[in-house]
């Protein structure tokens, strides 16, 4: 029960409480008036933020900002020159190949096919305009349909459909070309031909991963090897068999314009598991066996050389070839003699096909020592280097059962296994630990790319080029039967192309101050890591970017990774190329100075902007 004392106290405190509440109300009213007058800016800002985030959806997906925090912004009154807008080239340059142009080629000697080698224009003759696609150009068929079909409008040349009709190279049907899979020496199809080779060569075992197709035609051999998980580097010259390499790339098959001439092939030593010539018309028996010696250089110890066509089976075909028995018999004898000198062991000869195998080391091969041995210490230093009739020595081994240069694992295990060149410390600055770290880093980078370019890894991007491949980490992380990557190692970078091949990938040496050995519109995606930093003082960025535009297909994509200052220069030039561009922060956040540049080439064909066409400079 409450006492009288407590009842009296409650009555006394009730008026005091009312007065305190009234006082507080007045105080907060005055504070509110003060804030409304403009002095309480901090709270006003807080209120605005509260109102904007009242629905608790702070970062709605539609407004996510992936743009870099270091975007290039052109100053209104900048002293920098305005963005140069590049005009379209004349329609006659639709299939322009800067270093293999016919007019320039015809000024060089025909001896040893010198005129079909690379002859690039001097700086003042470079074409600095945009190569347009032919009228009616259509995005190529997706792989694997592209292996068998190509749009006529994309490669409008019917010559081969007539000249090679009986050999099933290519047929013209309606508005498309059809590729039945035939070849000069395999008119019944590449599949049956490869099955014959597989009776001798362990094609299914995983030991055969990289191949070289010399004088490839439309590259049907390489096209049908892809489904067997074998990457063939196909090459052929730009000659009267018009557009054969262009057809190959349109089909989605790795290929470059190239020839056996007077200079080395742009590949490292011990690169290929097998090399192939199907009526390639290369004079193997000439020049003291120089071309067979070059195949020996690029062929891996234990690798295979396949020859089909002349002079094999001369007893049946010598009249068709319009040659005497003595002539073709002597040619085959010279080839056999050179193969024996190289210590290649003949494994098979039947009909039009013969197969040799290179020994795994030089221990049991005294004949090689009796001929001229190449004196160069670096057998991978081949860019524009003159070829000579000499034999490239095997790397030293301790016993006769050891593979010279190191044994490779079966594919796909070899993709991430430590390559022998790394294990043997043959690449300056690259250790086993740094190689493994590089692999981890590129898996992270590629995962990031796939978040930005969602179709990367699908058949949308089938023909891909890495313009500064390093150890091949980008291609390895991206590896898929849906695509292939041309790994380019710049001639001014550390020579790592041998490592790339030891991983079961393919690639080529190149100097990006010059045009690449391909036709326009042959790649779906171009990637480059630190390429522009590498070439910063070597040649003009615009020349590299114009070359990228030439080889990139309409609506193809570009991914560059480089420093922010360099990429801002690139972005300014790219605006003049009509690319849609975006600069994205590094995966580790905006404070990292390295950024990612994304671009898409716009669709432009002949006749879209005739008023801006540029004729000969």
From TrEMBL:
- The question of whether Methyltransferase is a record keyword is answered with yes
Q: Where is the protein found, in the record's own terms?
A: Endomembrane system; Golgi apparatus membrane; Membrane
- Please give the GO cellular component terms listed in this UniProt entry: endosome; Golgi membrane; trans-Golgi network
Checking Pfam families in the record gives: Methyltransf_29
UniProt-listed InterPro entries: Put_SAM_MeTrfase, SAM-dependent_MTases_sf
Is Transferase among this UniProt entry's keywords? Answer: yes
- EC number in record: 2.1.1.-
What are the GO MF terms of this UniProt record?
Answer: methyltransferase activity
Tell me the membrane topology, using the record's own terms: Single-pass type II membrane protein; Single-pass membrane protein
Annotated family: Belongs to the methyltransferase superfamily.
Q: What is this protein called?
A: Methyltransferase
């Amino acid at each position: 029960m409450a006492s009288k004392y407590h009842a009296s106290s409650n009555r006394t405190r009730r008026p005091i409480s009312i007065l305190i509440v009234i006082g507080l109300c007045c105080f907060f009213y005055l504070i509110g008036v003060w804030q409304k007058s403009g002095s309480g800016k901090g709270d006003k800002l807080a209120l605005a933020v509260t109102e904007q985030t009242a629905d608790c959806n702070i970062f709605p997906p539609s407004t996510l900002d992936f743009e870099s925090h270091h975007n290039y912004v052109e100053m209104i009154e900048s002293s920098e020159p305005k963005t140069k807008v590049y005009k379209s080239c004349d329609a006659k340059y639709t299939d322009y190949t800067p270093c293999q142009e016919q007019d320039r080629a015809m000024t060089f000697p025909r001896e040893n096919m010198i005129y079909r080698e690379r002859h690039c224009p001097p700086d003042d003759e470079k074409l600095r305009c945009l190569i347009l696609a032919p009228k009616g150009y259509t995005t190529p068929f997706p792989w694997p349909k592209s292996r068998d079909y190509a749009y006529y409008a994309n490669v409008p040349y019917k010559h081969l459909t007539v000249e090679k009709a009986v050999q099933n190279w290519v047929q013209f049907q309606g508005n498309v070309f059809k590729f039945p899979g035939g070849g000069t020496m395999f008119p019944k199809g590449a599949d049956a031909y490869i099955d014959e080779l597989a009776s001798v060569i362990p094609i299914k075992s995983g030991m055969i991963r990289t191949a070289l197709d010399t004088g490839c035609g439309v590259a049907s051999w390489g096209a049908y090897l892809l489904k067997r998980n074998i990457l063939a580097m196909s090459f052929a010259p730009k000659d009267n068999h018009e557009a054969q390499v262009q057809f190959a790339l349109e089909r989605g098959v790795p290929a470059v314009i190239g020839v056996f001439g007077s200079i080395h092939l742009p590949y490292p030593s011990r690169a290929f598991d097998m090399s192939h010539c199907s009526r390639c018309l290369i004079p193997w028996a000439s020049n003291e066996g120089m071309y067979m010696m070059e195949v020996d250089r690029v062929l891996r110890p234990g690798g295979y050389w396949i020859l089909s066509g002349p002079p094999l089976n001369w007893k049946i075909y010598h009249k068709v070839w319009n040659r005497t028995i003595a002539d073709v018999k002597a040619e085959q004898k010279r080839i056999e003699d050179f193969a024996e000198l190289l210590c290649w062991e003949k494994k098979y000869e039947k009909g039009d096909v013969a197969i040799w195998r290179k020994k795994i080391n030089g221990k049991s091969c005294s004949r090689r020592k009796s001929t001229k041995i190449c004196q160069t210490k670096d057998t991978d230093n081949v860019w524009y280097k003159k070829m000579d009739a000499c034999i490239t020595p095997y790397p030293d081994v301790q016993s006769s059962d050891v593979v010279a240069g190191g044994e490779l694992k079966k594919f796909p295990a070899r993709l991430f296994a430590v390559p022998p060149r790394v294990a043997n410390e043959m690449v300056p600055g690259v250790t086993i630990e740094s190689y493994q770290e590089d692999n981890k880093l590129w898996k992270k980078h590629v995962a990031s790319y796939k978040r930005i370019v969602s179709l990367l890894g699908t058949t949308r991007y089938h023909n891909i080029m890495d313009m500064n491949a390093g150890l091949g980490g980008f291609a390895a992380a991206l590896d898929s039967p849906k695509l292939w990557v041309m790994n380019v190692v710049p001639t001014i970078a550390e020579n790592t192309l041998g490592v790339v091949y030891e991983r079961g990938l393919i690639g080529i040496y190149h100097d990006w101050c010059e045009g690449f050995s391909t036709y326009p519109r042959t790649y779906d995606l171009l990637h480059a890591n630190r390429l522009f930093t590498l070439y910063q003082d070597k040649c003009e960025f615009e020349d590299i970017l114009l070359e990228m535009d030439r080889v990139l297909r309409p609506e193809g994509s570009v991914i560059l990774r480089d420093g922010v200052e360099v990429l801002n220069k690139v972005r300014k030039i790219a605006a003049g190329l009509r690319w849609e561009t975006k600069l994205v922060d590094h995966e580790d956040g905006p404070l990292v100075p390295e950024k990612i540049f994304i671009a898409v080439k716009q669709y432009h064909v002949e006749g879209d902007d005739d008023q801006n066409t540029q004729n000969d400079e």
